[in-house]
Amino acid sequence: MYLKGKIRVDKKTKELVKRLKVNEIAVINHKDLDEIAALAIVKSKPKLVINASPSITGKYPNLGPLRLLEAGIPLLDEVGQDFFTNVIEGQEIEVRDNAAIINGQKYFGTMLNKEEILNKLKVIRQNYQQELTRFVYNTLEYAAKEIELIAQKMDLPPLKTKLAKKHVLIVVRGHNYQEDLKTIRPYIQEVRPVLIGVDGGADALLENGYKPDLIVGDMDSVTDKALKSGAELIVHAYSNGYAPGLSRLQKLNLHAHILPAPGTSEDIAMLLAYESGADLIVAVGSHSNAIDFFDKGRQGMSSTFLVRLKVGTILVDAKGVSKLYRGRVKVRDMVKIIAAALIPIFIVLMVSPVTHQLLRLMFIRFRLLFSL
């Protein structure tokens, strides 16, 4: 294989995809490339992805590398940190077989293929139990430390948006979030729930034609466009009150509430809706299993476990609903529907005096035309 092109490079894949253009070469440093990040790269349609780190280490069955190859995007893997340090955004590089070439210097990696990845995933799934056991123990250990997350009532910020006795839709950029959001479109149009975007989930709402009412998160993966959409902003802060995302909003001259709490931003969004008296919480793209949390680089899911214990009575998780039913209208069914619709029209026409006169005039005209 031989490729040549302009590169885009970033330490954070989620930042890289904001600049990555069609047919450029994406340079990442993403250990255990997760599915969500890979699909974001696929959307930009690069000609090649070069990863300085191993895209699949064997820790858990991450599907990112497989998604790239399924989309026809080659993946040169594990070229090393020296390569990542020396590349400069915008420069032209060559890729020949298993080497990336910059200014005559070769950096060797491995060009992954689909069969190799599938074999690795098969082995990983067989040995996954040990890692999962460690994950569960970490979850239980941290759950004991974070029990106040559900034991105490949350201090709510003074919001203009009313959540009490309403349906609340919380959107997170998780697996199948786009498909699930489109599937529940009739629900959104009919019920008109309060729309909460968790960080980049706010952009997902905008992309689908909705304006978020609230944006909750660290404010690190949401666009300026979403932040300026008019939604109320809630910065998720550490328990000590430190909110790293606040400085970004201050630079944009945007007002925000600060909500200190342990756990993830989507957990906080659910607790906010629950404590505010919401009738129902519908979650799209939420992280709710070990694979989701391995993808995020977390060692446990204590806060998510605790929060779901508390809000579970009013929580509906729409995760994967797009895969539950994918109905297609069959031709024979369409014919039956049209026939059924025509029957009452035919009956009305036959019993109508006006129809009788019309048919009589048409018959007379027919006789005159053919001299019958």
List the helices and strands and how they pair.
Elements lengths: L1 E8 L3 H4 L8 E4 L6 H10 L3 E4 L12 H7 L4 E3 L3 H6 L5 E5 L2 E4 L2 E4 L1 E2 L2 H13 L1 H18 L2 H4 L15 E5 L5 H7 L1 H7 L2 E5 L2 H7 L6 E4 L6 H4 L4 E6 L8 H6 L5 E4 L4 H11 L4 E5 L5 H6 L6 H10 L3 E3 L3 H4 L6 H21 L1 H17 L3
Helix pairs in contact: 2-3, 6-15, 13-15
Protein described:
- There is one protein chain.
- The chain has helices spanning 13-16, 35-44, 64-70, 81-86, 114-126, 128-145, 148-151, 177-183, 185-191, 201-207, 224-227, 246-251, 265-275, 290-295, 302-311, 321-324, 331-351, 353-369, and strands at residues 2-9, 25-28, 48-51, 75-77, 92-96, 99-102, 105-108, 110-111, 167-171, 194-198, 214-217, 232-237, 257-260, 280-284, 315-317.
- By secondary structure, it is an alpha/beta fold.
- The mean pLDDT is 84.
- It has 18 helices and 15 strands.
- The longest helix is centred in the last third of the chain and has 21 residues, at 331-351.
- The protein has an 8-stranded mixed beta sheet with strand order 7-6-5-1-2-3-4-8.
Strand content: 15-25%
Which residues sit in consecutive blocks of at least 5 with pLDDT less than 50?
none
Mean pLDDT across all amino acids: 84
Number of helices: 18
- CA-atom Rg in angstroms: 28 Å
**Main sheet record:** 8 strands, mixed
Assign a percent range to the helix content: 40-55%
Q: Give the CA-based shape.
A: globular
* Main structural class: alpha/beta
Number of strands: 15
Cα-to-Cα separation, first versus last residue: 80 Å
Write out the strand line-up for the largest beta sheet, numbering strands in chain order: 7-6-5-1-2-3-4-8
